[in-house]
Amino acid sequence: MSDAPIPDDRGAAPELAGRHLVLGLSGGIACYKAADFARELVKSGATVQVVMTEAALQFVTPVTMQALSGRPVHTSQWDARPAANMAHIDLSREADAIVVAPASADFIAQLAQGRAGELLSLLCLARPRGEGRAVPLLLAPAMNREMWSHPATQRNVAQAVADGALLLGPGHGAQACGETGDGRMLEAAELRDAVVAFFQPKVLAGRRVLVTAGPTFEALDPVRGITNRSSGKMGFAIARAAAEAGAAVTLVAGPVHLPTPAGVRRIDVGSALQMHDAVLPLAPAHDVFVATAAVADWRPIAMAEEKIKKDGSGRVPAFEMTENPDILAAVARLPQAQRPYCVGFAAESHDVLRHAREKRIRKAVPLIVANHGPATFGRDDNTLVLVDARGELELPRADKLSLARALVAQIAQRL
Ligand code: C5P
Fold first, then answer.
1. Residue 386: which H helix or E strand, with range?
2. Pair (218, 96) in one structural domain
3. pTM, entire model
4. Which of 27, 72, 187, 247 has its CA at 20 to 30 Å from residue 373's CA atom?
């Protein structure tokens, strides 16, 4: 069998290929989600060594976790199998990260106190934290909302974080106990995305990024309007990639049906004018502006108050149109002290590069990303050509998230 990473459903290389993770389970009903999480990690290319506390064994069996991770599970510090009988040392030295999911209130309390009564707490305590070879510790808390908000838990969480742990969640919502509130463990796919994000290079740490995405909708009457086939996928992928790279991201989205990427602030708008009015006051507070939205060029001068009716005469309505403001050009015209680094998109059906070069000059932006409109709208993959003052750089066909990460790296280099 070859060791080459198997491409995932979208043709991308598995995002966790080559990563070795210790997945720790402490006691809680969310252990059932940890089984799914282990599967997600393996599907993403990671090797996963599961370690379970005695309490976790009450909720899910090591047989299940072994079958999903493909490795025997460690449950005890007294296990004689490891050569020098030092599982806590071996396990914590090999890992690229330790992820504890679920992290129970009791387990976080043990961490806060530096306790080492079980293999999992022991190996968290024994993990290297030095400059050269630190093994990060990621915690996915899971507990009842009262337990989560209890000052003792909050104190322990703060202590664990001060000692270097990173929190994934918790989420908010219905809980197994029948109550609703904070303390739910994130879902398996959310946890997987958070681990993938954790490993992305933090090339935009401390930066603020503003992104527009999707189409706009120009109403003709209360039920009809003019829009286009932009799905918003590229813009949402860029917002996600920028957040993964450590930026604080604001996403101004036209009407699309896409989930908000984790950690991104989203503002929903309808028309081009609404998008313009949302973006312009925000732009000066951002370091980068990426305009991926397919903004309608024109809008009807007036929207009919009532639905326009067919009257049987065969006459068709005529709409007088006016031009929408160019949001990107308006941001690029801000005084230099208020102007973010501006990145425009050019989706063309022909002469893609020529139009992109012209657009870069006309809109006075340093970087234009060219792509073939009909070949990208609604699809999960794309090809991009970056056009700046120095020339052109092609990012070859890939899924939109991989392209977004490559684009974010290019933007970071240019800041
Ligand atoms: O529509 P056009 O080809 O000019 O779009 C090029 C770039 O300008 C894109 O980045 C788009 O988001 C932006 N744009 C804009 N406001 C408009 C039209 C386009 O921000 N009214």
1. strand 381-388
2. no
3. 0.91
4. 247
Nearest Cα to Cα of residue 240 among 269, 265, 215:
265
The span from the CA of 20 to the CA of 5, in Å, is 14
Tell the residue nearest (CA) to atom 21 of ligand 1. 326
Report whether residue 345 contacts ligand 1, using a CB cutoff of 6 Å. Answer: yes
Q: Which domain holds residue 32?
A: 20-199
Mark whether 78 and 144 lie in a shared domain: yes
Nearest CA to ligand 1 atom 9: 345
The pLDDT tens digits for 19-49 are: 999 999 999 999 999 999 999 999 999 999 9
Task: Please give the number of the atom of ligand 1 that sits closest to the Cα of 328.
Answer: 20
Here the tokens at position 104 are: 């129970």
177 is catalytic: yes
> 169, 199, 229: which is the final residue of a domain?
199
Domain count, the chain: 2
Q: What is the pLDDT of residues 100-127, one digit of tens each?
A: 999 999 999 999 999 999 999 999 999 9
Token reading at 70: 């493909």
Are 158 and 134 within one domain?
yes
